Amino acid sequence: MKIFLLFLLFIFPVNAIRLTSIIRLSNLIDHTCKQTPYYELCVSTLKSNPKSADADICGLAKIIVTSLDSKASDALDQINDLLQDELTLDPATEQALGVCAERYNVILNGDIPQTMAALDTGNYKFAQKGTNDAAVEVSACEKEFTGKSKSPLYELNKEVRRISIVAAAIVKVIINS
Amino acid sequence: MVDPNPFLPVSNPGYTPLPGEANPIGSPVTRRRSICLCLAVVSGLLALDLIVVLIGYRGSDNVQVHGNESGSLAASSGQPEIVRPVSRGPVAGVSEKANGHFADVGRLRSFPWNNSMLSWQRTAFHFQPEKNWMNDPNGPLFYKGWYHFFYQYNPNGAIWGDIVWGHAVSRDLIHWLHLPLAMVPDQWYDFNGVWTGSATILPDGKIVMLYTGATNESVQVQNLAYPADPSDPLLIKWIKYSGNPVLVPPPGIHHKDFRDPTTAWLTSEGKWRIIIGSKINRTGIALVYDTKDFKTYELLDGLFHGVPGTGMWECVDFYPVSKAEDCGLDTSINGPEVKHVVKASLDDDRHDYYAIGTYHDKNSTWVPDNPEIDVGIGIRYDYGVFYASKTFYDQDKSRRILWGWIGESDSEFADVKKGWASIQSIPRTILFDNKTGTHLLQWPVQEVESLRLRSNEFDKVQVKAGSVMKLDVGSATQLDIEAEFEVDKEALDKAPESNVTFSCSSSGGSVKRGALGPFGVSVLADEALSEQTPVYFYIVKGNGGKLTTHFCTDQSRSSEATDVNKPIYGSYVPVLEGEKLSLRILVDHSIVESFAQGGRTCIASRVYPTKAIYGAARLFLFNNATDASVTASLKIWQMNSAFIRPYPSENK
Predict the structure, then answer these.
(1) For residue A63, what is the nearest residue in chain B, using CA coordinates?
(2) Chain A residues 144-173 with a CB less than 8 Å from chain B
(3) What DSSP string runs through B72-115?
(4) With a threshold of 0.90, does the pTM exceed it?
(5) Homologous superfamily of A2-176 in CATH?
């Protein structure tokens, strides 16, 4: 029994350190996300990735960019699905979808690799450029669809745009820290 | 499966204990009254342990990087694929009015860039490689009859990444010939990037190159390289010193805040001295090192200089300017008629700032003449797009020459489509402005005038308040414009005083009329003025009748496209008693480089018109002031192309 108590007391300080560092890191997520325009999205994206548990702010940025990558891929998949539906597609929409596919390709093959490389090597302004540009590409895609109703990609575009803005905001925090 | 709310109690204990931790749950506790307290303590500890285990839960890595349908991501290699366009129908016609906004306001269509519009954007006489991405100028120098220019380059695409050193040579800083890549990331110490560096020419003519490498572990280090064959005037091959890196981040400096070594200069003790930019918390700093052989270095105590609140200092530069003569000075020169300039590129806002001050060789420090306009908080080389700039001493013509990286202001989609991104400024000579004592003067090198073809002169044209006139110059996409303006004296005297502080960027642009401005020229305009880029002066009369002049470039209506950046750039420009207002503009397709008052204030702008291109581009003279009429005299030259191309291989 005494041995058991001693044992618990021994592991408790270790846990205490883990606890304080984990609380500190949760505070890092909270502190960082408060500096982005979409706090809830930022927090939920970070917390849903286990790597956020012991990431520094650069690591948090990379997690957001990974999520951007995933959402942008989903958007591109959706675009390709819509393009398959030849019978109900009018020429204007088809053209707009084509441009959107190109812009999403730039996000996936240009903005995201550039941002990751910049975060890795510490040349953060190129991460800022990449994440800001992702938001530009999404806005441009959305604007391809003229007319009063929202585009068929509206919800996905909105998600991708928001997450890229969150990423850009976190990069700005890194640069200004 | 990841528990998205690790702070809530878990109903099924399907967790994995942390490695090294014993599973605390399941150990039986015998019931004895004397240890009720112990039970409570134990339960408390167990509860805490449980929470800790839940928080620290690490399930399997279930973050997937999608790499299938969207093509290879290759995130770690940073190599973008060439975008293959999805086939689509014919390009639609011109869209709705431009709204000048960058955000998704309304339902306006972003402009589908066609090849004609995109290929027009390429410049005719500014340095740029044949394709792909470029950024910082590196190691400029003059050697054995050739000007050498190196630059950050991505051989694989039109975005930043895979950085190597590109190389080109010229006899005259204008007509460039491309050479093979000078350095590539073939060592562990520059595996993640052969970054920016500077050249030092030793008294015996030897060249030493110091540059930053991003190592295979992403640590920023400084490396030494030198020409493989000094007798080769083209300096094609370079050797990296076998003992690299020669400098690693010192204690207290973050391994990602240590880059861009300067040209070295001789100290009074005969050692070589360099500075490297960095930061400590939010203070931008320059570290200073002495060396005798460029292989081993001594970090000097104290900082060369630092300015709180400015953040990371990139691409620092340090050089002397003469107060007495209109010429450049070798970097090692010092003396009573000499001031020293310190410059930094601020990572925070991507602008280049300089300050003039005094260098103290003995204690290796530098002090600004006016701490209120110290490095990073005072004067900028250029109020437009101009970054990572670097000077060198041209020993052939005794000039101090400045190079600046001018990036794109469009989307990366367009960059990828057109296959290139970024240009360099026309090299500028730097002189100390004796008349103001506070500014440097930057002016396009004289050799650019060799591109001038036929000219049109307009002498003392009266431009009444509220008027616009087209200047018939023929083609208007490659121009060298010199202009002088005189404001009607009566209007200057009668103009009301204003308390309002004016700034170009928040002024609302050239449509906002004041008593004494705006007036100037509008370049890259179409006939209907639906697209135009005004470059202008705006005079404000402050308290006590004091006149201050501002110089602006308004890009808000430069293009109908909605996916390009269209800000208004500019700044206050000192105008001394008796001086006429003067400007010079180099128009070269998508770059407009403007200089006011002999180069006291400069603005480099990138514009991407969709209509005011090729033969449809026009030039206008305008005066949008409400009261003052203006007399303008202009000389406008057509500019030839510089035919920048690869070095002819049979001549190598």
Answers:
(1) B63
(2) 144-148
(3) ---TTTT-PPPPPPPP--PPP---S------S--TTPPPP---H
(4) no
(5) Invertase/pectin methylesterase inhibitor family protein (1.20.140.40)
